[in-house]
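User: Quick sanity check before I run a bigger batch. Here is a single chain. Can you write out its predicted 3D structure?
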Amino acid sequence: MKKGYFGEFGGSFVSAEIQEELDKIEKEYNRLKKDKGFIRELNNLRRDYQGRPTPLYFCKNLTERVGGAKIYLKREDLNHTGAHKINHCIGEALLAKHLGKTKIIAETGAGQHGLAIATVCRVLGLECEIHMGSVDIKKQSANVSKMKMLGAKIVECTAGDGTLKDAVDSAFASYAGQLDSAIYCIGSVVGPHPFPTMVRDFQSVIGKEAKKQIKKHENRLPDYVVACVGGGSNAMGIFYPFIKEESVKLVGVEALGRGTSLAENSATINFGTTGVYQGFKSKVLQSEDGEIVDAYSIASGLDYPGVGPEHAYLNEIKRVEYVSASDEEALDAFYTLTKEEGIIPALESSHAVAYGMKLAQGLNKNQIVVINLSGRGDKDVDFVLNK
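Assistant: Done. Predicted structure follows.
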């Protein structure tokens, strides 16, 4: 496979100046991922600061309510800062330190990536600049307050529709002017090479743990692994260690939003076409003229008109099935999991829970569905209650 590509998807479509910096990042990452000292430092932070491993939890009440297969949750909501995002943030921040950088620039949608980066910057002594769309700043005010408390500079992005894609554009523009001192820590398996591979590798700790844990619980692998997909970091994190396990079906759940029309959803694989966007080639929500269409989802972290290139490839080779869940279905799952298990899920994760429940209902009691609960819903409670 061509370097930086997954089939026809991936690559790096950036200026020569930024490409030179990305080449340095890739070279140092390839060195560090084999370095015992770096691996030890990363694992120590994961264990003692982040709180890994996260549990794999059997949902007895939800399983009984739904009927059918056993439902397990991979509890990424129990990470420090409340979501899977800290998995790659620690890795990227350590990489920044090794590169001699003093500052991290990042984008955020739901605020979880921004919060995780801001938190890690405190513990590792780095400056932090977070770009966030104006719409998301209003929806995720609790996370914005936490980022400010942690000393992060918040850059409000008012261009476009004021959501995640605009924050990415703004962050990249800022990064281009600070290449000597800063590193851009992208928040998903998107962007130019090496970000999709690097973020996937850091996130794959989810699937590695889940694989061991389900064998301990059930003495076998699950029948299905389900995860929500926006850019796709939590999904790639849990899918990747299972890809070669042909008996395990992998299901990515995109945000159907309000419907199937353009600008009504964020279901990029289901409704997008191939294009180059924000420095990489993948499936993109775009018009027939190639204009990027505003994505929509009730979940800010899924509200993005592109998807990671490896997801586009896994769809192409039919290794992962990509389905969708609507706003209404996600809200129903949000309340159902809260009431049945005392676990308040993030709206992003609620999309996976919604489809996972539907899937389990059609299976038999000897089958197993593992759902990646990518984050907790503290950030969404006020928004949901005001719906």
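The longest strand covers residues 249-257.

User: Great, the batch can go ahead then.
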